[in-house]
Write a structure and sequence with these properties.
The protein is an all-beta fold. It has seven domains: 129 residues, Immunoglobulins (Immunoglobulin-like), CATH 2.60.40.10; 72 residues; 201 residues, no CATH class; 72 residues, Immunoglobulin-like (Sandwich); 48 residues, no CATH class; 81 residues, Immunoglobulin-like (Sandwich), CATH 2.60.40.10; 75 residues, Immunoglobulin-like (Sandwich), CATH 2.60.40. It contains one helix and 60 strands. The chain has a six-stranded mixed sheet with strand order 15-26-17-20-24-21, with no helix packed on it. A five-stranded mixed sheet has the order 3-1-2-5-8, with no helix packed on it. A five-stranded mixed sheet has the order 4-10-9-6-7, with no helix packed on it. A hairpin with a 5-residue loop joins strand 9 and strand 10. The chain is rod-shaped and about 185 Å long. It starts with a strand and ends with a strand.
């Protein structure tokens, strides 16, 4: 905030006789920010400069030198009693008071009008021209990367110029100009070039330069230790160029010809080729209508000493306005609106320099209506911020934001003393890798839940540390993983979001139970006691014990019961039966019957469980029957069996026939595959088989005591078999 006192004086130029009205002189004061000191008298400029947001107190202080109060005669002219004050600011009327308050809420120029009238109509009119600092154009601010990863840095380059809108003030004369301000190094070297554009707006689109006088002047603030290197030229929006200074006489410059300035300085430079920093820049102005001397290249003798940095060397005198090397008439036809660019080229080595700024002024008469005004920028800086890690001069910084974002304020001060600011935000790429686990300990096998729901990103990759991994979806999850083996490793969560990544770690230290393998055996008959565990059958058995590593120890035993055999046996009271019923008594001849459980299979589909010495069974059909005896020990650990094949024979009345001394036995009957003819004595007789129609089907010879006859080729039916022509039993075949 500036504190300014403004004072304005205007005399009412009238002549009066003793009987006429009393003249007076009008005065007006303005206090900016309430300051009563540092008053600024605007008579020399016609205006004062304030900043947006300032509060101005206007006070009418007319001088009534002929009043009764001052002279003791005449009539009273008391501001508190009989004086009228008429105020207008920007065309708006304000209260009739000697003091008014005005808050500057628009960055424009405006007029303050005051009319002071006494009780008899004598008046004085006053006018104050006020300019408000215009916010600059911050479009030159750039951010290398406005979305960065955590822990990264980025560069922000500040930039501003006075290209905000220019405003007109009725009755004022403020000139139309634009100015570029910014320290720029002119590197030493062959053909090294600097360029700086200024954008001109406010003219109509069709307006063009019509005369050399449309460009009032072009001014450059510069220092350089050897002018004979330089070429300086101006380019209008359509590409037309006009040289201001062609001081290079070599043959490889940008501008043909040239009149070398040799070792004459510009400004008060540091005569160095290594970029030791700027010296003192002097302003040199060029005009085709205001020049009081010819081109600089024709006036190398117009010099003054460079007193400070130049060690008394001679510099071109800045107190003259020089003509450009070519007239500004070369710009005729160029549009006013657009980019006007200043070029500076260094063509030789050994020295360097700096550009501090440059500006261009146009003739006020070519602007429609009353001309406006334009601010220039004096300085620039970034507001302090602990996350600024490096300053690159006044306009560039390196920042490392913390948290989700960082805000950085760039400030410039204009020639009105106003400070203008803008903020630049650098956002941190939202990314976070987090697992709700500090460590994994215990015994495997185990299932571990990995909760990474607090993670932020668009891609997730979880390395479980055991050689397996999981690729997640775009949303954080809670997943489980099965660990089967003991490991000492680290699980790692990788989270990415664009070009940024983050990781989270979980240590894993798991143990596995030890496993021991043993074998043992025992005789059948009683349960095997293994550390209190009773074993009743052969096979693999397991017990779990607590180990020193905190995990269970597993012992695996391959156990077998040894079976020496039960010496099973049985007998029957009769094995061959010819007449029903076929009742058989079986006797269990196994030793130590009390040690076993027995199951009988009588061969006719009948199963009987009995531990008795004698068991009885009645056969109801004819045939040959195998009898089996199964036994298990009392605990069921071992078993044994005994089978008597074709042990019991039962026949019907036609199946057995006694002829002389011979007894024939046929079985099975009915049959399907074969029939057996058995006698107690070896025979050499023939047999013949007939069907029911008496046809001979087959015949053959009996051999020995037992002959087996295949019947597979016979159809189902009833047949007769004839032996020796006499014995003719029926055979029933069922295929």
């Amino acid at each position: 905030m500036k504190y300014i006192l403004l004072s304005f004086i205007l005399c009412a130029c009238k002549y009066f006789s003793a009987q006429t009205l009393q003249p007076f002189t009008g005065h007006m004061e303005a206090y900016v920010g309430g300051a009563l000191q540092n008053a600024i008298n605007p008579i020399d400029t016609g205006f004062v400069d304030v900043c947006l947001g300032d509060t101005i107190v206007y006070v009418a202080t007319p001088d009534f030198y002929n009043s009764l109060e001052n002279t003791g005669s005449g009539y009273s002219q008391d501001v508190n009693l009989n004086i009228d004050f008429s105020w207008t600011i920007g065309g708006d009327a304000y209260p009739n008071n000697d003091t008014i308050f005005y808050v500057v809420n628009s960055a424009i120029g405006f007029m303050v009008d005051l009319t002071v009238t006494d009780q008899f109509g004598e008046s004085a009119e006053l006018m104050s021209k006020i300019r408000v600092g215009i916010p600059p154009n911050f479009s030159g601010i750039s951010v290398s990367q406005d979305l960065i990863c955590a822990g990264s840095t980025t560069q922000i380059s500040g930039g501003a110029n006075g290209e905000g809108s220019a405003f007109t003030i009725p009755g004022g004369s403020f000139g139309s100009s634009q100015y570029f301000e910014g320290l720029t190094y002119l590197p030493d070297g062959s053909g090294a070039q600097y360029e700086a554009p200024i954008t001109i707006e406010g003219f109509s689109a069709s307006e063009t330069v019509t005369s050399a006088g449309d460009l009032t002047q072009v001014c450059v603030t510069i220092e350089h230790s050897y002018s004979g290197d330089l070429e300086i030229w101006l380019q209008c929006p359509n590409g037309t160029t006009v040289p201001l200074v062609n001081a290079y006489g070599g043959g490889n410059g940008a501008i043909p010809g040239g009149n070398s300035g040799g070792g004459i300085y510009l400004g008060d430079p540091i005569d160095d080729a290594g970029g030791a920093g700027p010296g003192e820049g002097w302003e040199y102005c060029f005009s085709s209508v205001l020049n009081d001397i010819g081109p600089m290249t024709q006036n190398w003798g117009n010099t003054i000493p460079a007193p400070n940095y130049g060690n008394g060397g001679q510099s071109v005198n800045p107190n003259n306005i020089y003509a450009p090397d070519n007239s500004f008439s070369g710009f005729i036809g160029c549009p006013f609106n657009g980019e006007w660019t200043l070029f500076v080229q260094d063509n030789l080595g050994i020295d360097d320099g700096y550009i501090f700024g440059w500006g261009i002024d146009f003739d006020e008469s070519i602007i429609g209506g009353e001309p406006g005004y334009q601010n220039t920028l004096d300085s620039a800086w970034w507001s302090p911020n602990p996350t600024i890690v490096s300053n690159l001069g006044d306009t560039a910084i390196i920042v490392a934001p913390e948290g989700s974002s960082g805000s950085y304020t760039f400030n410039v001060a204009d020639d009105f003393g106003c400070i203008h600011s803008t903020s630049v935000t650098v956002t941190m790429n939202p990314i976070n890798a987090a697992i709700d686990l500090e460590s994994i300990e215990g015994c495997v096998p185990m299932v571990v839940a990995f909760d990474y729901s607090e993670s932020v990103g668009d891609s997730f990759y979880l390395d479980f540390g055991d050689g397996t991994y999981y690729t997640g979806s775009s949303e954080a999850e809670n997943i489980s993983h099965f660990y089967s083996d003991a490991i000492d490793a680290t699980a790692i969560l990788y989270v990415s979001n664009g070009d940024c990544s983050d990781t989270a770690f979980v240590s894993i230290n798991t143990n596995a139970p030890t496993t021991n393998y043993i074998s043992d055996s025992a005789f059948c008959g009683e349960a095997y006691d293994w550390n209190g565990q009773l074993i009743y059958d052969s096979g693999v058995h397991t017990q779990i014990f607590e180990a020193n590593n905190g995990c269970d120890s597993v012992v695996v035993m391959d156990f077998a019961f040894i079976n020496n055999g039960f010496d099973l046996g049985f007998s029957a009271n009769q094995q061959l039966f010819t007449e029903p019923p076929y009742a058989v008594q079986f006797t269990n001849t196994t030793p130590d019957l009390e040690n076993y459980n027995f199951t009988w299979n009588f061969g006719d589909g009948t199963i009987l469980q009995s531990n008795n010495l004698n068991v009885f069974h009645e056969y109801t059909s004819s045939g040959s029957f195998s009898v089996s005896l199964f036994a298990t020990d009392l605990i069921g650990s071992c078993s044994d069996s005994f089978v008597e094949t074709d042990y019991i024979f039962t026949t019907g009345e036609s199946s057995v026939h006694e002829e002389g001394l011979y007894f024939y036995h046929l079985y099975p009957n009915p049959t399907s595959k074969k029939i057996i003819i058995q006698t107690e004595t070896s025979l050499q007789n023939e047999f013949v088989i007939h069907d029911q129609q008496g046809r001979e089907i087959m015949k053959g010879a009996l051999k020995g005591k037992q002959t087996e006859i295949s019947l597979e080729n016979l159809k189902s039916g009833t047949y007769t078999i004839q032996i020796e022509g006499k014995f003719k039993p029926r055979i029933v075949v069922k295929q």
